[in-house]
Amino acid sequence: MKTILPPAATPTNIPSGGRRTYRVTGISVLAPAPAASQPTVLVDRDGEVWRETDRVRGGERVWECPAPSDPEDRGPGESYPWTLPEMDAWFGPLVERLDGAA
User: Fold this and answer.
1) pLDDT tens, N- to C-terminus, the chain (102 residues)
2) CB-based contacts of 69: which residues, under 8 Å, 6+ apart?
3) 73: which DSSP letter?
């Protein structure tokens, strides 16, 4: 999400009564913050940890839960390619945390 801050405004006139009118001369867009040095993981409402993979489906990154707590969700083979909107709909709310955080 981009943060837009107005530039330093200067008053163009100062009428009586203490009211000021400002002229905005431009809007600056701040650069996004640098990415975290550690990979980001998401935790769902049941405490399951989701990690971002290198795969892409429909233009969106694919996430996986490498160690689900329910034994029926474990098994051989590749897991379903969950995208972020699907995860949020099925398992949300999701909480972001740095990998390795308690």
Assistant:
1) 565 555 555 555 555 555 566 666 666 676 666 655 556 789 998 899 998 888 888 888 889 888 888 888 787 877 788 888 998 899 888 888 866 554
2) 46, 47, 48
3) G
> Could you write out the DSSP letters of every residue in 13-33?
E--TTS--EEE----EEPPPP
Q: Are 6 and 24 in contact (CB under 8 A)?
A: yes
Instruction: Delimit the domains of the chain by residue range.
Output: 40-98
Residue 52 φ/ψ, nearest 5 degrees: -75, 140
pTM over 0.70: no
